[in-house]
Amino acid sequence: MKRSRINDIIAQSDDMMRSFGFVLPPWAYWTPDEFKARAGEAAAVIEARNGWDITDYGAGDFDKMGLFLFTLRNGRLADLQRGGGMCYAEKLLISKQDQLSPMHTHVIKAEDIINRGGATLVVELFGSDADGHFDETTGGTVWCDGLQRDYGPGEKLRLAPGESVTLMPGDWHAFWGEGGDVLIGEVSTVNDDETDNIFREPIGRFANIQEDAAPTHLLVSDYRNWLD
């Protein structure tokens, strides 16, 4: 992805979030130079990989397959492993109309996916085999707004604004906006985007960036190169 396109997506996404009453924390708007200057102060933000995250999954066609994310807070895996402390994470996402977030599951993370506003969010579901691998013949059980719901293989949930689904490890899922763009909330256990996204197809989690312009704001995938 070109950096200039990423800058545009950040600006457009911020406008959409604000239109639904969501305002990001002040550090979200730091310039790269300000982030460098305040890296010590922001050590917990950097370590948790909180911040802007835009991906085309390495496929090079963001409008067809991609996702905007902003990680607001993220806990510590060590706390999750010992069963106490900061064991949670929270994100805002934007899924554009017909923009696929491809089929994947998680080994550790359980997550609530919430339609926070906009169009309909479609979530396609499959279950796992005995080894946790994708199984096109298997369904499972999820919770929609806290109510139990069994699903068949390939079933598509359609979530209107205010509706949600709880997904557990082993629930394979893909999603996209139907009829327009969707603002999504994600509340989950500790999030590790580097190792805990298991995709059905061999694709990447992060975009390959062409530096055709200076970044307006750093992405979480920029932290190692810009701040170390």
Overview of the structural elements:
With 228 residues, the chain is α+β, with helices and mostly antiparallel strands. The protein is built from five helices and twelve strands. It has helices at residues 3-19, 32-37, 43-48, 77-82, 223-227, and strands at 51-55, 67-74, 88-95, 101-105, 111-128, 134-135, 140-144, 147-151, 155-159, 164-167, 172-189, 198-199. Strands 1, 2, 3, 4, 5, 6, 7, 8, 9, 10, 11 and 12 form a twelve-stranded antiparallel sheet that branches. β5 (111-128) and β6 form a beta hairpin. It is globular and about 50 Å long. The model has no long low-confidence stretch (mean pLDDT 95). This is D-lyxose ketol-isomerase. Keywords: Carbohydrate metabolism, Isomerase, Manganese, Metal-binding. InterPro entries: D-lyxose_isomer, EcSI_cupin, RmlC-like_jellyroll. Belongs to the D-lyxose ketol-isomerase family.
Overview features:
228 residues; alpha+beta; Jelly Rolls; twelve-stranded antiparallel sheet; 5 helices; 18% helix; 37% strand; globular
Task: Please render the helix and strand layout as text.
Layout: H1 3-19, H2 32-37, H3 43-48, E1 51-55, E2 67-74, H4 77-82, E3 88-95, E4 101-105, E5 111-128, E6 134-135, E7 140-144, E8 147-151, E9 155-159, E10 164-167, E11 172-189, E12 198-199, H5 223-227
Antiparallel strand pairs: 1-2, 2-3, 3-11, 4-11, 4-12, 5-6, 5-9, 5-10, 5-11, 7-8, 7-10
